[in-house]
Design brief:
With about 450 residues, the chain is mostly beta strands. About 10% of the residues lie in helices and about 40% in strands. The protein contains three helices and 34 strands. The protein has helices at about 5-30, 160-170, 300, and strands spanning about 40, 60, 65-70, 70, 75-85, 90-95, 100, 105-115, 120-125, 135-140, 190, 195-210, 215-220, 230, 235-245, 250-255, 280-285, 290-295, 310-315, 325, 325-330, 335-345, 350-355, 365, 370-380, 385-390, 395-400, 400-410, 410-415, 420-425, 430-435, 445, 445-450, 450-460.
Amino acid sequence: MPADRSFEKFIIVLTAIFGLFAVVIAVIAGIATVRGGTASAAEGETAAAATDEVVAPHITLSEFAIEGDLVIPPGEVRFEIHNEGAVAHNLAVEGHGISADLNGGESINFEVGALEPGEYKLTCEIAGHKEAGMEATLVVSESGGETQLGGGHGDEEVDWAALDQAMMDSILAYPAETEGIGNQLLEPEVLADGTKRFELTASIVEWEVEPGRFVEAWTYNEMVPGPMIKLDVGDKVEIAVTNELPMGTDVHWHGIHTPNPMDGVAPLTQPLIEPGDTFVYEFVADDPAVGMYHAHHHAQMQVPNGMFAPMIIGDLPLPAGRTIGGIDVPADLEIAQEIPMVLNDAGTIGFSLNGKSFPATQPYVANQGDWLMIHYYNEGLQIHPMHQHQFPQLVIAKDGIPLDNPYWSDTVNIAPGERYTVLVHAEDAGVWVWHCHILNHVEREEGMFGMVTALIVQEPS
């Protein structure tokens, strides 16, 4: 090949490489505005061009607040967002189809577009974060320009006495009555051959999570949590699930030993239970278990919204007569109460214990000297360290499996999907607070809420 043709070919290849490099640079420049996050805009909305006239409010996200420049003039808006939190957060402009995601410690510039004068609701769309306090109002005003720190606490801005009173009032409202009680024991129909048959109906109902706050809950038998199922080892079981939801569903028996066709994962082990259809699960309860049942189809939606419930098979062995950590467990140990406590933090239900938010959570009443068995179930999306004032908790089983070496714990950390079983000796009389120790899960500026209840220990009459 002549030398001039080789040189010509080299120039063509080099030009192609530089052309590709230019395309890559253009793509990088195009996504630099929202690096590491995701953004979406409603149809017809376009990102604002970066000009000297762009309004650039600084917004800070944290656990759990949205703060920053919340009073701005109208125009093309570009948020300068920084996530000061340790976990991922999201910033959304409600009703405008605009949102951006940020990992902990991340900062982005996020083009919003033109905003006319008015008020715009800013929220974090990650499940449970809005309910924990991540919402603010952005005011677009012709007289804008002076910044207002959302959630800030300057001495001239906050009525500290009002904050104190709000907390006192919220605590004194406990226990508040609300409609609906979850976790009720479901009685079976016993068939001629001894099979225990249970009926579950999946449907959407209005559920009062806390006084005056009704939500659309996705339920089994119109309660949150769904009805508790208790079985003996060796029971033959039929559970008929009828679907009255607007979409398909299935039921996974979490921590329960079942044949593969009964595992509840459509379409792998069963057909999807379409709206209006019924599917019957059949298995033998051949192993002791502290399990739960919940939806598996679109679980990110159906489970946090209420489709979860306890299922217990048999009895756990007790460490009676043992000395653990220097504390003697009586040889004649008897359980006065067995308490299933389902933890949630997301969906329409939000931060709750057994489907209720403080002050509507259930108080538990014991006599002085009683031993209680508590089963913690985490059906939420976050970890929850459960702390009981005054009484240490003897952890005897994890996920329904008895521990060879039980241990005492002041605070028991329960991750999503986990179950912990603990014993509590109610020795001292009084009203003892019992709560998740992630403080934003139990308190906000309006007072106490969410994952709080109490153990009331009565003196002998």
